[in-house]
Amino acid sequence: MVQPEKKSEVREVLYSLSPWIIRVLLFSIVTNILVLAPSGYMLEVYDRVVNSRNHQTLLMLTLLVVGLYIMLEALEWVRSGVMREAASAFDERLRRRVFDTAFAARLKNLPVGNAAQMTGDLRTIREAIGAHVTLSFMDAPLALLVLVILFLMHPLLGWFSVIGAVIQVVIGVINERRIKEPMMLASRGSTASQMYAGSVLRNAQVIRSMGMLGNMRTRWLAKQREFLASQADASDTAGANASLSKLVQSLLGSSLLGIGCWLTLEGNLGGSGMIVGSILGGKVLSPLVQIIANWRQVESAREAFARLDGMLKAFPAEEKKMPLPPPKGALSVEGVIAGAPGSQAQILKGIAFRVAPGDSLAVVGPSASGKTTLARLLTGVWSPMSGKVRLDGSDIYSWNKEELGPHVGYLPQAVELFDGTIAENVARFGAPDPQKVQEACRMVGLEAFIATLPDGYDTPVGDDGAFLSGGQRQRVALARAIYGMPRFVVLDEPNSNLDNDGDAALIGTLRELKAAGTTVIVMTHRMNVLSVVEYMLVLIDGQIKQFGPRDQVLSALRGEQPPKPSSASKPQPQPPKGVSLEPVKGGQP
Ligand SMILES: Nc1ncnc2c1ncn2[C@@H]1O[C@H](COP(=O)(O)OP(=O)(O)OP(=O)(O)O)[C@@H](O)[C@H]1O
């Protein structure tokens, strides 16, 4: 079946700029006429002043031309201003959508560079709209009118101008062909080099401690050399062609004067015709020369347009859906097969289980068995290849996350904090509710630490929480996950960085969540977490090996009879065979 062509959002936004474009086109008519003022002045001075030797006429003509100059420059200023306004409007109308799409693309495992390229592409198009070259495009139709006048004056003048224009276009095309490849390599190389430098700077401590700076620098220098060589190649070619283009323009101006003079001598053109002809010839070429000189900018904008449009088509805006009622926390995982976005490899190979509202489940399993993958599916970060993850019966992946977010808590394995204060991070960068922030920090045992800080909850955490210790970062992230007591919480290795106190605080947090009726799923390698959960799921190589009430699963793993229900209130979990679990740190909480 033929798929209908998806609408081009970027093109639609460009079309929406027509009120600005029409205004500029109207101004362009006036400026293009005013541009002829110096030529008119020259002719009038020759015709009227030199012959009549009239000082007053000279004064009047000079005052008139000065007035016209001022008007021309004022209009040019207004014209550029209107285009800059149009450029801002373009950015304004797309920036939110571009940001969201870059974010969605990153969630689909697209490299950071490609996702970030989108904001660069938006900037490239915006700059091209506001650039002088766009005005040259608007001047081009009027240049055609000037060409018609030249033909009417004498066909020879017209043809000479056309030949000049054709030579200019040929130079432009050759230039573009020659520099396209090196420019592309230079642009890619520059991005790669920048990203590499960024990653070196982010990991400065590792590099310093193991004396890796020399090796890293050598790599960076090689990347720099590579892209600078391509850039130099492109600039050399562009420079040579620009000089050639200027030469053609100067030659054409003088040739037209010569031809005009010859035509006058032959009696085919009036005396002033030769001057008018040479001046008008220059006007035909001027927008063309501008366009050719800035053709790279036009090409870059065209490439950025294609890339941006492709990405926006690949990631359509989320449709507005009817809001769903807040979830109660009933989780159902139905025949889920899943892998990393963009990859066909299956990490989870047919997973199905249910967790009732308020119940807690520990997911254990060896490294790389798929626990983190499951956490990403349970929180709707990744979508399954087949099957569904449902919260209160609704597909969690398609649930509007802005709407669902306050009811869900997620602590990822790699803790990510953002540049802001403790309170802002805990409150998920919404307006912090001081009571809820304090409550979340109390539950994870951060209160005492925060009390020692001069700025308390308003203390900045630094980029990615750089001012905090690993354990503190994990606790702040845990507080963020439980901020506002969500109904559904997924914790991926919540105690990987915690000491005994932190572990005890975590167990306390899990108990409080339980008491509040929150459904909790916790991926763990630690035994002590098992003491506060009711259910257990053993994941091995992407498949469920065991699932059920905790003690039953533990007994099954040890090859024993399941314990009697009463023992569930006094859990004494032991490491099962085949599943590596670290012993409880600091004893039973
Ligand atoms: N973003 C990704 N892109 C491609 N493959 C991935 C990605 N994330 C995980 N994988 C692969 O999926 C498999 C399962 O990884 P996952 O992180 O889910 O395991 P895990 O059980 O959480 O391991 P651990 O206990 O070590 O954290 C691994 O083989 C890993 O290479």
Automatic annotation (TrEMBL):
Subcellular location: Cell membrane
Keywords: ATP-binding, Membrane, Nucleotide-binding, Transmembrane, Transmembrane helix
Top-level taxonomic group: Bacteria
Region (Disordered): 553-589
Chain segments annotated as transmembrane: 20-37, 57-75, 128-150, 156-174
Main subcellular location: membrane
Gene Ontology MF: a single term: ATPase-coupled lipid transmembrane transporter activity
ABC transmembrane type-1 domain residues: 24-300
Regions annotated as coiled coil: none
Membrane topology, from the record: Multi-pass membrane protein
GO cellular component assignments: plasma membrane; type I protein secretion system complex
GO BP term, example: protein secretion by the type I secretion system
Domain ABC transporter: 331-566
Name recorded for this polypeptide: Peptidase
Organism: Chlorobaculum limnaeum
